[in-house]
Design goal:
The protein is mostly helical. Helices cover 70% and strands 0% of the residues.
Amino acid sequence: MNITAQQIQAETAYKQERTKREFRGSKRRNRAEQAAQPEPRHARRALRPTTAA
């Protein structure tokens, strides 16, 4: 099985595009994961009685 120069170029281009796509998607994924986590609350605020209590 011979591999031509065109096949090598095509494969390289495909890998580069895929890497770019994964890199762009990872940023979005990380932002979504960070947004899903609640922000830490201050200890005093957590211990303060609420208006509903």
